[in-house]
Amino acid sequence: MIRLIFKNLFNRWTDVTNIESALKYRFKDKNYLNVALTHKSLKSDNSENYERLEFLGDSILESVLTDWLYRKYPDSDEGYLTNQRSSLVNKCFLTIVACKLNIDQDIKVDKSVNLEDEKVINNIISDVYESLIGAIFLDGGFKAAKKVIISTIIDNVHFANHENNYKGRLIEYCHKSQLEGPRFMHHFPKGPEHEKIFNVELKLGKDKTFFGQGKSKKEAEQEAAKRALEHLC
């Protein structure tokens, strides 16, 4: 994982010129951008931090990439396409993309967040990338969001690490082995609001169960899938 250095984390407002230039998108409503860059440790109100925008951006990102992969690999099966998509939306790759855009320099977060923890930093920066996609969608529509995804994600696919995409590899393994796909059950997260630990239970077939834990649901799923693959292979 990339180690990030935040330079302007505690600024209340950010000069957004550089980030707009990096994204090649100029916001009509700058409030969308400011919310997309604000961590919940600074603003607990859901309308003032990036979590809702992250949720929206995640869905748009997957939609655009699903369409792109479907067209790019017309002869590939579902398992392969799922594997490729998962490698493009995992936190490690999104962190790499965000770093190339220097997004880390403009995020706003409270001093109580442990920025010495590399996983915490990388989770924040990858979440903010998704929130920015959500903000662009609300500000400029689907075409604008798709254009940014193409220029930031698709133009950097060579940085994606398919080998570490355990969830995608597990889905592909099940598909090729004619096994029922993995089922993920998420348990209630534990810990303080800004440092929650997510737990997931992965079920394969009727009698195989694996557990994963992480700073996000996606990270917990990857950990559980990794353990499943170690058992199967």
Describe, in short, the structure shown:
With 233 residues, this protein is mainly α. It is built from nine helices and three strands.
SS-derived structural category: mainly alpha
| Tally of individual domains | 2
* Text of the CATH class of the largest domain: Mainly Alpha
Count the beta strands. Answer: 3
Strand content: 5-15%
Written account of the structure:
The chain has 233 residues and is mainly alpha-helical. The protein has helices spanning 17-23, 30-36, 51-72, 78-89, 91-100, 118-140, 142-152, 166-176, 217-232, and strands at residues 183-190, 197-204, 208-214. Strands 1-2-3 form a three-stranded antiparallel sheet. Residues 1-14 have low confidence and may be disordered.
Topology record:
Blueprint lengths: L16 H7 L6 H7 L14 H22 L5 H12 L1 H10 L17 H23 L1 H11 L13 H11 L6 E8 L6 E8 L3 E7 L2 H16 L1
Antiparallel strand pairs: 1-2, 2-3
Helix pairs in contact: 2-6, 3-4, 3-6, 3-7, 4-8, 5-6, 6-7, 8-9
